[in-house]
Write a structure and sequence with these properties.
Helix content: under 10%
Strand content: 25-35%
Strand order of the largest sheet: 3-6-9-12-15-18-21-24-27-29-30
Radius of gyration: 18 Å
Largest sheet: 11 strands, mixed
Shape: globular
Oligomer: single chain
Order of helices and strands: EEEEEEEEEEEEEEEEEEEEEEEEEEEEEE
Length: 226
């Protein structure tokens, strides 16, 4: 149950919340039951933490009760960002304004998720990753350490576009350590972008990209080694 708190204007806090005294809290922030917030965290105006999971009637996502949200020390949650219960936000992570992070997503230390970007359920983001504005990291994707994702990138996970047989798994892409994805690129389900590889802006990547190569075009083709 949410209750009003005098710590900040319009702050609502649920039961069993951990909210240290040094947390910076903007106006109209909501912190749901059980959420654990680390020391030195900044919660900007209108941020929602630990939001309960709400699935559609036809959703095939797991319906088990998620664990409480954990926000690591020194993290920043941008204005009007929403982070669901079951997510894990590492130390010194920055979530831009209106970012959205779903249940069972994990974001490693010192990574940045840009304004308006969405991290779907069961996504693993490593350390020092930079995801720019307006990106979509689809469910079951893996983004390793030091990856750069330019604005407007889309990762996909369903070859059937919603018509997969019952029980067939979704398969998100894998972005290996230090890879770079150019603006507006689309990465198809299950594709692996190798270490230090570079995907050019606007590319549609339909097959694996070997490490330390440049891939461009629609469909993307290997141009040269890096």
């Amino acid at each position: 149950m949410l209750r009003a708190s005098e710590r900040a204007p319009g702050l609502l806090v649920g039961e069993g919340v951990t909210l240290p005294d040094d947390v910076e809290i903007g106006a109209r922030v909501i912190v749901h039951d059980g959420t654990v917030v680390g020391e030195g965290v900044r919660l900007l105006d209108g941020a929602v933490l630990g939001k309960p999971v709400a699935l559609g009637a036809r959703s095939k996502a797991a319906r088990s009760e998620p664990t409480p949200l954990v926000v690591g020390p020194g993290a920043t949650v941008g204005a009007r960002s929403i982070v669901l219960a079951g997510a894990a936000i590492g130390p010194r992570v920055t979530l831009g304004d209106q970012a959205h992070v779903r249940e069972r997503a994990a974001i490693g230390e010192e990574s940045t998720i840009g304004s308006g970007s969405s991290v779907d359920n069961d996504v693993v983001v490593g350390a020092r990753v930079r995801v720019q504005t307006g990106c979509y990291l689809t469910a079951f994707s893996e983004v390793e350490d030091d990856v750069f994702v330019a604005p407007g990138v889309t990762l996909t996970n369903d070859w059937t576009a919603g018509r997969r047989p019952r029980g067939a798994p979704l398969e998100g892409p894998v972005l290996r350590r230090g890879s770079r994805i150019g603006g507006g690129a689309v990465i198809l389900p299950g594709v692996v972008v190798g270490e230090e590889a570079f995907v050019g802006a606007g590319a549609v990547v339909t097959r694996d990209v070997p490490e330390r190569t440049l891939a461009t075009g629609v469909p993307a083709r290997i141009v040269r080694e890096l």
